[in-house]
Amino acid sequence: MTSKASNPEEYIEQLPEDRQLIISKLRAVIKDHLPEGFQEGMSYGMIAFDVPHSLYPAGYHAKPESPLPFIHIASQKNHIALYHMGIYTDKTLMGRFLDEYKKVGAKKIDMGKSCIRFKPKQEIPYQLIGVLASKMTPQEWINLYEQNIKRK
What we know:
Layout: H1 8-13, H2 17-33, E1 39-43, E2 46-51, E3 68-75, E4 80-84, H3 85-89, H4 91-103, E5 110-111, E6 115-118, H5 126-134, H6 138-148
Antiparallel strand pairs: 1-2, 2-3, 3-4, 4-6, 5-6
Helix pairs in contact: 2-5
């Protein structure tokens, strides 16, 4: 569900109380673990952690006026979504994440290419999400993006 909120706080305030707690905790763990250089904001109606234009002036190839997306979190109709572009482009990072996910005893993962979906009542491995958020600097993400995604 796309939100018209102008900032993360407003986005969270508009959610049902149970979703507010989940999104707030996800947001906090990501902010606490992200390497320096990413910026928090809103993008595509979700809370976003992006590479700002000050570090990557070209922006996102599909929408150059937007910063380069990295991690987004959202409350969707039937699930909580964590979009992480790094696992989409880095097979090693994806493999390590999936191995660790199994070790934490979490429920079978529901995942798309870059989206990890959690049911609202499902246990979310917040600590593991924090570790995942810490694994890539803005420059490492820019390099992967240019090698694997950006259309030249």
